[in-house]
Amino acid sequence: MLNIALFGPPGAGKGTQSQMLIEKYNLAYISTGDLLRQEIAEETELGIQVKDLIGRGGLVSDEMMVDLIEKKIITSSDKNGILFDGFPRTLVQSYILDGLLLKLNTSLSCMLSLEVPDDELTRRLIERGKVSGRADDTEEVIKFRLSEYKDKTSPVIGYYQERHLYVPIQGVGPISDIFDTLCNAIESMLEKVWFNLVVSGPPGVGKGTQGRMLAEKLNFYYISTGSLLRKEINAGTELGLRVKETYERGDLVSDEIVIRLIEREISVHNNVNGFVFKGFPRTILQSYILDGLLRRLNMGVSYVVELNAPMIELIKRLDKRGRSEKARIYDVSTELIIHRLEEYNSKTALVMELYKKQNKHVVVNAMGTKEEIFERLLDTVQSAMKKSR
């Protein structure tokens, strides 16, 4: 999702630019001002409280705003993302927004800040007051609102600067020029958005083959927990010996070991469009672990593809591989093969259910030639990438 916070002091032109942005990018528009004015117009209990606060130039409580924003978000699932106009206004609200978006399994893409000098802001607001008759556009209230902005809202800049999400935009000049600058900033940001893909499915379904082909085609970095573990085994490390014993039993390797290896891979590869994770996560706990690892980099799991094939076909493939030079330790017997398939059904299938609830999961038919499967998979992933951006 493309989630943007349009930032700036009263009179900076957020409303005008917001309308142009939501049309161009098909975004849901959440203007705290509009939401509050609707409550006032309908003369709700909340609206009566808000009217008094706005008349004095004060800020509405966070509890009030969260209720209104969450209600609006829930009804905007058909959009490519959300544009927030007038929120967050305080450091506390920045944390609140993170929490709200986390519930939607997404995050803020960027904060675009319209920069306008105080004298220009005052001129604009006085003119607006003459035209609209808004009670909060008198010179006395304007002075108070700009003071409130500097005292309470400006610290929000630091919050997003630390997360490399803050982008200042010159807010003086022709409306079309400002809009072009905003769009250029968004397009530049979209080019840097990482798309992180989990390729899952039962043993023998072809995750490794298809994952590597996707990574090469889309400039992703391919992370296979199995490959990383086999490297440790072949190198004869202490870690490798522990892994070998686990494999020989047909069990899953401990999370502690897998985390260490994945974290190492992520930290040294940052010149790609994203990561393809093959063989991870395999359990619910591992899905939480992966979320934690990615959130440290201001990322998350973008999409999950589950390759699917009939059980008999999987057994045939694994048995064939077990009798070839590509045989794995866990391919040596039918008993181990069946054990691994049962492990998948009992543990990893639950992970797929989790991603289904997050609307990040799709099943792709893994029957046919390698090329046929890849064509289906590539179409599915590229479609998801377009929607995410």
If you had to describe this structure to a student in words, what would you say it looks like?
The chain is built from 17 helices and 10 strands. With 389 residues, the protein is α/β, with parallel strands linked by helices. It has 2 domains: 2-191, P-loop containing nucleotide triphosphate hydrolases (Rossmann fold, 3-Layer(aba) Sandwich); 197-388, Rossmann fold (3-Layer(aba) Sandwich). It starts with a strand and ends with a helix.
Strands, count:
10
Task: Tell me the CATH architecture of the largest domain.
Answer: 3-Layer(aba) Sandwich
**Beta fraction:** 5-15%
The count of domains is 2
Shape: elongated
Poorly predicted spans: none
Rg is 26 Å
CATH class placement of the largest domain: Alpha Beta
Q: Structural class of the helices, strands and pairings?
A: alpha/beta
Short structural description:
With 389 residues, the chain is of the alpha/beta class. It has helices spanning 14-25, 32-41, 45-55, 62-74, 91-103, 118-132, 139-153, 155-162, 175-191, 207-218, 225-235, 238-249, 255-268, 284-295, 311-322, 334-357, 370-388; strands spanning 2-7, 27-31, 81-85, 110-115, 166-170, 197-200, 221-224, 275-278, 303-308, 361-365.
SSE blueprint and pairings:
Elements: E1 2-7, H1 14-25, E2 27-31, H2 32-41, H3 45-55, H4 62-74, E3 81-85, H5 91-103, E4 110-115, H6 118-132, H7 139-153, H8 155-162, E5 166-170, H9 175-191, E6 197-200, H10 207-218, E7 221-224, H11 225-235, H12 238-249, H13 255-268, E8 275-278, H14 284-295, E9 303-308, H15 311-322, H16 334-357, E10 361-365, H17 370-388
Parallel strand pairs: 1-3, 1-4, 2-3, 4-5, 6-8, 6-9, 7-8, 9-10
Helix pairs in contact: 1-9, 2-3, 6-7, 10-17, 11-12, 15-16
